[in-house]
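ok so heres the complex, two chains, lmk if somethin looks off
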Amino acid sequence: MTADATALTTHSDAHAEAHAFDTHPAGGIGTPVLGMLLFIASEVMFFAGLFAAYFSIRAGYTEIVGGVPTHVWPPTAYEGLLNPFKLVTPDGQLNLILPATIILVLSSVTCQLGVWGIMKDDRRKFLRNFAVTLVLGVVFLLLQLYDYSVLINEGLTMGSTTFGTTYYTMTGFHFAHVFGGVLMLGVVLYRGMAGQFSAKHNDMVEATSLYWHFVDVVWILLFSTLYLL
Amino acid sequence: MATTTLNPAAPAVRGGLYEWLTTTDHKKIGIMYLINSIIFFLAGGILALVVRLELAVPGLQFVDESFYNQAFTMHASFMLFLFVIPILAGFGNYVVPLQIGAPDMAFPRINALSFWLLPLGGALMASGFLASGGAAASGWTEYPPLSGGQYSGTGTDLWIMGLTLIGTSSILGSINFLVTIFKMRAPGMTLFRMPILVWTVLVTSVLVLMATPVLTSALVMLFIDRNYGGHFFDPANGGNAVLYQNVFWFYSHPAVYIMILPAMGIISEILPVFSRKPLFGYKAFIFATVAIGALGFSVWAHHMFTTGAVFLPFFSLMTFLIAVPTGVKMFNWIATMWRGKLTFETPMLYAIGFLTLFLLGGINGAFSAAVPVDFALHDTYFVVAHIHYVLFGGSVFAIFAGIYYWFPKMTGRMLGEGLGKIQFVLMFIGFNLTFFPMHQLGLAGMPRRIADYAANAGWSELNLAATIGGFVIAFAMLPFFWNVLVSLRNGKIASSDPWEANTLEWATTSPPPAYNFDHLPEIRSERPVFDARYGRTVAH
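and the predicted structre for the whole thing:
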């Protein structure tokens, strides 16, 4: 005990100079968390560019109705295609976009429960909730892939006017972001099982959860815009 | 004898090239940024000479129209995305941690990643020259439909992929700068004691963070249109070609400030040192920088006045407004020099060159901000003159000022003054000979991006003058590279603080040790090294 204390003193004396460069001043936001918040800000701007393009295209879309160019959206050929509340499509396939949405929102809840767990040093709660989040994320990705196959079956492709182009671009980039998030959850889970996180050291857990919430919020906006609005 | 038998394997393995390839030291990464940028500066310069050579006299003498288009497209792409933007990031990388008294950037490995994405993106972009159909050729703006799949080939895809990587590099770099500036400042280094260069890098990083992802979105939409049957910019299927211009300029106008704000920061470091006075209006300068950054997001459509698709009065007014904070800075710089004890070492010469040329660039920019004038000048050589006065006369002169100013810190050797002055004079003359006639060419109606013009158009003499000027600029690079080579071996040894400067990078050795500082002077103002030199600090 005494030896430890002495060693500590010597250590701090020898590095008194180095303490001037302390990169983690007491209090304030953690460096990795700030980095992640800024990264999310840039991602917001990326999706803002896509949303701006979508609304600009949507507002300018016209079709010839009775010889007169008229604003319509969605294009008449794809009317009613993106209805989340009809769980079965006309040709008998399942439309699972609403369940997928609920699953992704739920995964945000479990992710946050995991963060609160590790903040109280409750590793079991943290690991269980992050494992559930990871599974829910994978299920969302699989449902999304299934949904693409259903839509392609019904004739909606990237080339189906700007309606198809915007739909697949926006949901596709969201898909890629969820995929990235699942990878990050996997890394956090792996490191968590190795016991690398605690109530004091959980910056990466928090950063990953922030990213996951961001991906969730983007989906809520996409779902509202593409399916409901 | 015994010492010679010691096995020196460990340092030998990590030394030299391997060390540079794997380093996460912000100083080494900063120097690699500079070297990589200068390589692309040379490539872009050679392409500019191709353009000038072809335009020297009427008729097509050296290249066909197709290669001419590739030459001016890749000239601008190299100069903007692979020279000016990254070299300023390189100065930021080297200088910012030193100036705030930090041992390194906040995320050293991400820092290495942001650097290594640059040569990769640049090589991808340049590899277009090897593709069938050649490199991207629709101008650096790559407007559809010209950049669409119907009119352009693989070179454009490579250009898009390369630029996406370069943009990612910028975004990661900006996150790193912001976190470094917010989290790593030495004790006493409050926000309003930070050197101006750090402030300009801070504001620039916010611009990069907010604007570059929008460029990425424009590029992926273009890529999807070209390769996956998308219709974003295809009016026949509900798309909108002007949409690309909006999204593109939402990045590319703030990019102008990304390319000038750190350059202004460099100038604001140099002028006070060689005037022996503090910067006039330190806080006003910071607020002007922030104002330029904020206004910079509201002027993008002044590049699109003639599309008829933008609200002219708003964008014209905002463009004029941006002249106000810029004017504040001009007066700050002039007042800094006013009644100072001026000395004219090479960095100072370049700084004064910056002031004169950037002023001209600002004035001819204000011309184009007026909508009726712009309708006449749009896409003429007047615009080419404007961009080169602000970007070459502005940013590039500041970059050379920065190279001469920090070379002693980076290498421990001074650059030769004589060769430096010869280079400055040649560049100043060559620059004005090249670009001043372009104002008149533009007013005489010469459009940009043409490979040839009629002999009776009245443009021949001015074009010849511009071509001669271009070769004078190229010639001015010879004393520069000679100077660097000679000085690296035999240059005067630089002390820690050869210029008697103000900021913390001069409080450590030249070059600094890997961890930057053995000890820091107390920081009680924005000029801690000045304070320490004149005893305006409490010893402890």
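quick notes: The mean pLDDT of chain B is 94. thats all i got rn
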